[in-house]
Amino acid sequence: QVQLVESGGGLVQPGGSLRLSCAGVGINFRLNPMGWYRQAPGKQRELVAQILPAPGGNTIYADSVKGRFTISRDNGKNTVYLQMNKLAPEDTAVYYCNRFPWNGWPNWGQGTQVTVSS
């Protein structure tokens, strides 16, 4: 059974940083295009960053996070990270990882809440 487990969220002041982690069970992140998504209250889920499968591992970012967020992958730990710097209140959302594009598999994890507030 495939499981995605996100962690690392929390409350941070504007301008601060957080690193999110996504651990996968039953799915090899190295072989799959993976993305970090976020969903703010009352808004649709949006993709903020993606990383292509090995060996290329190219990364692509939404304009809203470009230059502030960095997606990476540790193949040995089968974990995808999202380093978030210069956080702003508009980054407040629940963050999820999953394949991109998502075609219905695997199921979404529980996400991790990021709140940016002073």
Kindly name the structural category: mainly beta
Which regions have little confidence, pLDDT < 50, spanning 5+ residues? Answer: none
User: How confident is the prediction overall: mean pLDDT?
Assistant: 96
Rg estimate, integer Å: 13 Å
* Total DSSP E strands: 10
Helix percent band: under 10%
Taken from the alpha-carbon principal axes, the silhouette is globular
Distance between the termini: 40 Å
- Widest sheet, order of strands: 2-10-9-4-5-6
Major β-sheet profile: 6 strands, mixed
Which percent band covers the strand fraction? over 45%
Question: Please, could you describe this protein's structure?
Answer:
- The strands form 2 sheets. Strands 2-10-9-4-5-6 form a 6-stranded mixed beta sheet, with no helix packed on it. Strands 1-3-8-7 form a 4-stranded antiparallel beta sheet, with no helix packed on it.
- The protein is mainly beta and 118 residues long.
- It has no helices and 10 strands.
Please sum up the structure shown.
With 118 residues, the chain is mainly β. It contains no helices and ten strands.
How do the strands and helices of this protein lay out in sequence?
Blueprint: E1 3-7, E2 10-12, E3 18-25, E4 34-39, E5 46-51, E6 59-61, E7 69-74, E8 79-84, E9 93-99, E10 112-116
Parallel strand pairs: 2-10
Antiparallel strand pairs: 1-3, 3-8, 4-5, 4-9, 5-6, 7-8, 9-10
